[in-house]
Amino acid sequence: MASEESLKIQLYDNLGSLEGIRADWDALLAEFPHATTFSTWEWLAPWWRAFGESDRLHVLAFRDAASALVGLAPLALTTLSVFPTRLRLLRMMGDGSHDSDNLDLPVRSGREAEFSSALLDWLEQHARDWDICGLHTLPAHSPVGLRLLNDLKLRNWRTFTSTHPHTVVELPENWETYTKALSSKERGKIGLRSRRLEKKYKVQIRKCTDEAELDSLLAALFELHGQHWQLRGLPGTLRSPARRQFYGELARLLLARRRLEFWALELDGRIVALQFGFRHGSTVFSLQEGFDPEDASDSVGYVLRSQVLKQLIADGVRCYDFLGGTDESKLRWGAQVKSYLNIDFARPLTRGTLHLSLQYKSAETKAWLRTNLPQPLLRVLKRGRGILPEG
Description:
Elements: E1 8-12, H1 15-18, H2 22-31, H3 41-51, E2 56-63, E3 69-82, E4 85-92, H4 112-125, E5 132-139, H5 143-154, E6 158-170, H6 175-180, H7 184-200, E7 203-207, H8 214-230, H9 241-256, E8 260-267, E9 270-280, E10 283-291, H10 300-314, E11 319-324, H11 328-331, E12 336-346, H12 351-372, H13 375-383
Parallel strand pairs: 4-5, 10-11
Antiparallel strand pairs: 1-2, 2-3, 3-4, 5-12, 6-11, 6-12, 7-8, 8-9, 9-10
Helix pairs in contact: 3-9, 4-5, 7-10, 8-9
């Protein structure tokens, strides 16, 4: 078994010190075949400034004998209140606000075994600092995630796994091939709705390329997104000051690296729909969107999506990732349902193990009830004493 001596581990507990390894971090991601925006400084640093004040940073950098950065474990320590006690949860930096997907542990190819062993050695040596480790929304093919599962089993640590669905569109080399793969109904709607809009208005679709217009476009996104949710009697996620701060800083960092995919649809000079996303390599991630409810009958969000996809295909994008969720508005675009991997583990015979056992047993019970109980009885339980929360 490899030990921590084979890879030198350095702990970074604040953003100031972590910024000093940005060049090495970027170089590591450039060689990591599964890298996404969610593992970059541009995502994680703004996220931490917006949401991380109640956590403690625990980023582990793994270096070889030549001091080259071999792998990175961007972790953070937080506290769970579990009656009648409190547990210390070590989780991925970026986890906890429901903004981050595809969180991963980037490692140079071929070094996964060393990294996994060294990480678990480190966790064992610092056992007094944590009770539970939760690695959530890992890509299902995460090399380190899969290696960790094997090594955790060998060490007899209690390990629990679950999955979370997300949807991805694999894009071909041209628009014609893409539309042929859609249903005939969907192909017809794309052309019909675009032409109908162009007959009624002067239509302009543009991408944000100038930092000077970021604030106004973000303000429009926040407003239109909020209007949509207000119709449902809900505030919407973009009402949060922390999330608005996060989007503002994130957008500037991504724009500076030409990775921002922030698109707007204007009708007669009025912004009626926006889509906020970002590009990493040949993949574009669609994070958020908003449209004017007064223009819903003109399907402005639909038209903007179709025209953005057409332009992205021409620009060489080969994967359009809708991130979490499997609703019909995503599947209609030819999206395939895939899964993230969640790994939770704790050392044997600890209160962390007890908590995870109860947590997963409860989840299994609720899933069984939702599948097997009659719908009238399910509604009674949901409206009752919180026995079966909405799922």
